[in-house]
Amino acid sequence: MDDVASPASEQASQRAGGAAPRRFSWLWGPAFVAAIAYVDPGNVAANLTAGALYGYLLIWVLVLANAAAMLVQYLSAKAGLVTGRSLPELVGRRMSTGPRLAYWAQAELVVLATDLAEVLGGAIALQILFGLPLLVGGLIVGVVSMLLLAVQGRGGQRHFEFVVMGLLLVITIGFTAGLFVSDISWAQTFEGLVPRFAGTESVLLAASMLGATVMPHAIYVHSALARDRQLADGTDLHRMLHATRWDVVVSMLIAGTVNVAMLLLAATSLQGVAGTDSIQGAHAAIAHTLGPSVAVLFAVGLLASGLASTSVGCYAGAEIMAGLLRVRVPMLARRAVTLVPALVILGLGVNPTWALVLSQVVLSFGIPFALIPLVRLTSNPALMGVLANHRPVKVVAWIVVAAIVALNLALIVLTVIGVG
Fold first, then answer.
1. Per-position b or e across 130-164, b if 16+ CB within 10 A of its CB
2. DSSP assignment letter at 6
3. 111 C-beta neighbours (distance < 10 Å), count
4. Does residue 64 contact residue 197 with C-beta atoms inside 8 Å?
5. DSSP letter at 85?
6. Dist CA 406 CA 420 (whole Å)
7. For residues 257 and 146, what is the distance between their CA atoms, to the nearest angstrom?
């Protein structure tokens, strides 16, 4: 049952035989696709809400979460590169049928929560830009995401990476443009780096921000993307790992900057402004405070975020199903099925912004189920050989896992106390 792969350094060297050397930067890409998950509409809702309600208070959550994301995404990519298997495949091979199905169920719930956030965000963007009903916008987002997935199916992974990286550029411009005309208090910004809360709701938002930043499906999909890139390029494993470190650091710095920019924008322009408890209201406040041009760029960034992230989420869901159920469903068919819950939410008229925030809380609870196996597997010398995590990396990784679990437990306790 435990089909342990031999350390893949020898296999990778064999695959590299005769392969033409590639430019270092050409090996980048998988982490940028995973980074889309860190700037999806769920991030927008969580970060804008946090900034509008608490100002600079929760900046520290984003900074720590982004630092943790760098480590987590590198470990995910390393697992795929060294073993030649995705994280879902590695986990699935080590479980009997019952536990494997239960693990798949929680992973699938995470993907559904992710998809909900992404479709809702794209629909909100289309409503802001063109006045479309949310349900119609959700359908359009679903159709366009199918076209993006078709790029991956026909053009291959590299073409898909280029498209997603282009959308990441649009997202970055859209969500950071407002900072250039905002009056940021740098003193309060640095104060926001000190860890603290301000009641139950701030803990809820912190968990939401964490779930929107360190995302389970990004952990699953990055291992698959790295695996496929290694198999396609046949590049020397050690060179690929070196390139992957830079791939992760640069992409996560971009994503982290965008997240902090959103919170700073809300803290400087939306705090205390009525009606900013929704993305639509926040957009209206941005237009009033910073001008229509900034507001349009923000809405375009939100739309690009929804389109790119829902495609990556569907890709992740397909890899999770293939690894855990050993069933590979056509990507477009899966896209059509997973679109339904989001369209139902839109049709029921649920407050889309709070649906986004709560979806990120669900993601936060799913993180340990991805992180714990990731740390254990990448620390296993029998699987990873000399590339297994060294003691300092293991210590830091387990601290990250413990911090995330502690934050979720605090969320439960404070919420129960608040209700009581």
1. eebebbebbbbbbebbbebbebbeeeebeebbebb
2. P
3. 25
4. no
5. S
6. 21
7. 29
For residue 351 the two structure tokens come to 């407050």
Cβ atoms of 74 and 245 closer than 8 Å: yes
Residue-wise pLDDT tens digits, 74-123: 999 999 999 999 999 999 999 999 999 999 999 999 888 888 888 998 99
Question: What does the block give as tokens for 271?
Answer: 């705090």
Q: State the greatest distance between any 2 C-alpha atoms of the chain, in Å, as a whole number.
A: 67
- CATH architecture of the region 29-419: Up-down Bundle (1.20)
What is the C-alpha separation between 124 and 403, in angstroms, rounded? 33
Picking from 310, 368, 384, the residue whose alpha carbon sits closest to that of residue 149 is 310
Q: Write out the two tokens for 295.
A: 């507001």
Q: Which residues contact 189 (CB under 8 A, 6 or more apart)?
A: 56, 59, 264
pLDDT tens by residue, 291-339: 999 999 999 999 999 999 999 999 999 999 999 999 988 888 888 888 8
Distance, in Å, from the CA atom of 226 to the CA atom of 90, rounded to the nearest integer, reads 14
pTM summary value: 0.88
Question: What distance in Å separates the CA atoms of residue 308 and residue 149, rounded to the nearest whole number?
Answer: 10
The answer to whether the beta carbons of residues 40 and 306 sit under 8 Å apart is yes
For residue 111, give both structure tokens: 């993907």
Tell me if 276 sits within 8 A of 180, measured CB to CB. Answer: no
Under 8 Å between Cβ of 77 and 320? no
Tokens 């930067």 found at: 25
Q: Where are the domains of the chain?
A: 29-419
